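Customer escalation, tier 2.

The customer says the design service returned an amino acid string that "doesn't look like it belongs to this structure." They asked us to rerun it and document both sides in this ticket. The original structure tokens are below, unchanged.
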């Protein structure tokens, strides 16, 4: 059942859509600015341990999300020869999880409304466990594809449910921090995955089974833990289960005095019910589109998720090992371990975001993060461009194939079937040649000087990168990017989306924004290599610079601050101005009556 929580006045007329008619009486302005009453009678309450336990088990869903996205790159190195995967199958195996996550993020909206946040999370953890087990015992590529698809179902459901569940249970003063912990678990999952990639990469036969199958352990822990956790109190109130909601609120607030918060949410739900009876049972999606304030909230929430994906985070992580090898690290295993350290940087600076979110607020944190990301992308773009413009030349011919037709290293490595072989004396690059990649060696040329394992002293084989004096810029840009992205643009889209929708639209709003994240994740993954071939690596990063600048302007205009407000207050922030980010004074329950819902308004 859909309900509405942000209206007392409905503006419509069946003939001309212009007549204004009061729907319910205006409530008296008796509510405090903090409906959760965290400071009862002047005494600050202690947050009960139960809230942290609840957030921990919920955030395991974020860990699974991060672990899967982090582990697949290392696992694919072992899966490709094991199952003889061609490029099409590789793309299918990697993309299946993202595609199904996007689809089931949308499915999760009505599912959350119908069966509740707890039930959906239990289903997601059970599905994920089954998918991980299937991957661990896979005997052919069809089983592999099926397992990856099942994982996507679990990740899609969990990624849109967990932030919302935590936000609805958390006290006002901890809501941002606890929801951000979910993103901390995402980056923690990526870090753990990168370490396990390094550990199990030495087992060429069965290492991938351990990489993929071990994901069943945390998902099983979450499944068991959630059997003992309560349903979201706001979902219970919405469905008339007041006694259960009161008990949950008392556990989450650490006090028996929860009647003010309970009554506030209940009043809003009753107003929603009366509105639904008066307007008829309208599809929630259509109701969102016809409600200006909620429509703006969905636009902002989906825009934040879109900007997160098109700001280049996955492509920066994709090139982390290549950037490290450009600095002079020749050993592939060492490059993998150093790349794991970049995931560690991402994790550490997400902790900074957890610390800052309730101190400086969501809006300053995300704007500062995006400005830093913009500067970092400029450094990366300039670094790649200088490396391309000062690329070593091909001065030595060792074959008569397609690779030998290239005149510069940069052109040579753009072809994945070619590599650059050269002699290194100090910092000088001599006798550079472009040679076809070997089919009988794990890393080397098909003929010529680099057709040996190990290579002769002074001979270097560069596959996928060129030697350059500007490698330090790439490394600097990489570290800067992660330092700025991790505390703000990483967690804040999830935190803000868990807060900005009224109760009747919360599940659907989160489903739409989460699906936006996954669909653009898939779009960037599928288009990135094509972009680098069409407009070069540095051209692609300059494109990201332009996108991030537009995103910065959008967030400055459209995003209000939600820090320190109850969920019921936050939903009023998108009333009135279409640019609430530029509004000096946000609506407040203390100083105004409940805002109106305009059906068919602008």
């Amino acid at each position: 059942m859909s309900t509405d929580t942000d209206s007392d006045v409905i503006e419509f007329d069946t003939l001309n859509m212009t007549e204004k008619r009061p729907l319910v009486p205006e409530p008296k302005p008796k509510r405090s600015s903090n409906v959760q009453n965290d400071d009862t009678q002047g005494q600050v309450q202690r947050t009960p341990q139960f809230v942290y336990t609840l957030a921990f088990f919920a955030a395991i869903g974020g860990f699974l999300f991060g672990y899967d996205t982090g582990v697949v790159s290392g696992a694919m190195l072992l899966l490709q020869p094991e199952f003889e995967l061609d490029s099409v199958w590789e793309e299918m195996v990697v993309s299946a999880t993202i595609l199904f996550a996007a689809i089931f993020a949308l499915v999760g909206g009505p599912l959350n409304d119908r069966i509740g946040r707890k039930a959906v999370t239990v289903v997601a953890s059970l599905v994920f466990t089954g998918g991980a087990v299937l991957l661990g015992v896979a005997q052919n590529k069809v089983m592999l594809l099926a397992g990856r698809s099942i994982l996507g179902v679990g990740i899609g459901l969990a990624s849109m449910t967990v932030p919302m569940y935590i936000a609805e249970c958390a006290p006002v003063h901890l809501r941002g921090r606890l929801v951000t912990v979910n993103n901390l678990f995402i980056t923690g999952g990526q870090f753990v995955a990168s370490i396990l990639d390094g550990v199990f990469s030495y087992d060429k036969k069965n290492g991938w089974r351990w990489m993929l199958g071990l994901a069943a352990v945390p998902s099983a822990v979450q499944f068991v833990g959630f059997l003992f956790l309560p349903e979201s109190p706001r979902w219970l109130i919405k469905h008339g289960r007041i006694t259960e909601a009161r008990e949950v609120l008392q556990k989450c607030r650490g006090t028996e005095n929860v009647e003010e918060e309970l009554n506030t949410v209940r009043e809003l739900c009753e107003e929603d019910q009366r509105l639904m009876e008066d307007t008829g049972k309208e599809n929630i999606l259509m109701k969102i589109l016809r409600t200006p304030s909620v429509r703006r909230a969905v636009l902002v929430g989906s825009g934040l998720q879109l900007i997160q994906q098109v700001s280049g985070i996955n492509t920066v992580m994709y090139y982390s090992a290549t950037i490290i090898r450009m600095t002079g690290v020749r050993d592939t295993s060492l490059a993998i371990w150093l790349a794991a350290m970049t995931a560690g940087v991402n994790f550490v600076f997400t902790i900074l975001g957890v610390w800052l979110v309730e101190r400086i607020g969501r809006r300053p944190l995300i704007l500062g993060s995006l400005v830093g990301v913009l500067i970092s992308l400029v450094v990366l773009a300039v670094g790649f461009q200088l490396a391309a413009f000062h690329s070593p030349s091909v001065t030595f011919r060792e074959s008569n194939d397609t690779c030998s037709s290239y005149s510069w290293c940069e052109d040579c490595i753009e072809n994945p079937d070619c590599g650059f072989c050269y002699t290194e004396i100090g910092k000088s690059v001599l006798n550079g040649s472009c040679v076809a990649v070997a089919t009988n060696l794990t890393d080397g040329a098909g003929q010529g000087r680099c057709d040996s394992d190990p290579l002769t002293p002074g001979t270097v084989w560069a596959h996928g990168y060129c030697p350059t004096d500007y490698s330090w810029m790439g490394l600097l840009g990489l570290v800067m990017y992660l330092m700025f992205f991790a505390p703000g643009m990483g967690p804040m889209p999830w935190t803000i989306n868990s807060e900005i929708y009224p109760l009747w639209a919360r599940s659907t709003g989160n489903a739409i924004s989460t699906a936006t994240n996954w669909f653009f994740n898939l779009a960037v993954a599928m288009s990135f290599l094509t972009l680098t071939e069409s407009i070069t690596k540095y051209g692609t990063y300059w494109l990201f610079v332009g996108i991030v600048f537009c995103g910065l302007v959008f967030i400055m205009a459209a995003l209000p601050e939600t820090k320190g407000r109850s969920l019921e207050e936050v939903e009023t922030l998108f009333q009135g101005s279409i640019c609430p980010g530029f509004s000096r004074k946000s609506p407040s329950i203390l100083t105004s009556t409940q805002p109106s819902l305009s059906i068919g308004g602008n």
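Tier 2 assessment: The sequence is consistent with the input. The radius of gyration is 27 Å. Residues 1-44, 585-602 have pLDDT under 50 and may be disordered. Sent an explanation to the customer and offered a walkthrough call.
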